[in-house]
Amino acid sequence: xxxxxxxxxxxxxxxxxxxxxxxxxxxxxxxxxxxxxxxxxxxxxxxxxxxxxxxxxxxxxxxxxxxxxxxxxxxxxxxxxxxxxxxxxxxxxxxxxxxxxxxxxxxxxxxxxxxxxxxxxxxxxxxxxxxxxxxxxxxxxxxxxxxxxxxxxxxxxxxxxxxxxxxxxxxxxxxxxxxxxxxxxxxxxxxxxxxxxxxxxxxxxxxxxxxxxxxxxxxxxxxxxxxxxxxxxxxxxxxxxxxxxxxxxxxxxxxxxxxxxx
Length: 262
Hints:
Layout: E1 14-20, H1 40-48, E2 57-61, H2 64-72, E3 77-79, H3 87-95, E4 103-106, H4 116-128, E5 134-140, H5 144-148, E6 154-157, E7 163-167, E8 190-199, H6 200-206, H7 213-218, H8 222-227, E9 232-236, H9 247-261
């Protein structure tokens, strides 16, 4: 596995890796869908490339079809172990070759509308807080249906921005519901945004750590980090990104993309 040498300045000490798996349960081969004229993975790649802090980016592929699609539009891509159990393992495999970059960012391949500023924020959190091994993002929840939706992971954090817990359940859970909770300032509820920045050395360690009990229950890998006693910093953005999980998600993305081109 080899990557092109990035053109970077002295302050650019981070690198973005986009794990990309060909098959998906709810939307087969979604990263290669191209109703916009571009494969979905290209939209994500171009969105991530708008970040200013990273020195470069690449796609960590599990299948030659994705590798070929990325290289066809001029992107960097490497083929990783197709048996890797998770996207984090795929990112860690690539990180093992990136010794010059102490911060590695994991951007999901199905996030075509990720903001470059969001990537920069996660990197900045680690650069400014050397005690933290990992950073992620969250956005306010203002709709009760979103709060109750188990597909939208919730997070709570302390006054220093350190995550206390992640859950598919509403957290905090009001003892008595009042719609006013949805309109407080600061917000009472936050949705987790699945973008991660890691210390490279910690990422390599994380890939070898066994699943924790809470992680097995909630099916949330970040709980492994909290249960092991490490800190995850949480940066706040205005709106959550819209990942592509279903045919309806993709149709809505295509609609928004076409509206933006009109």
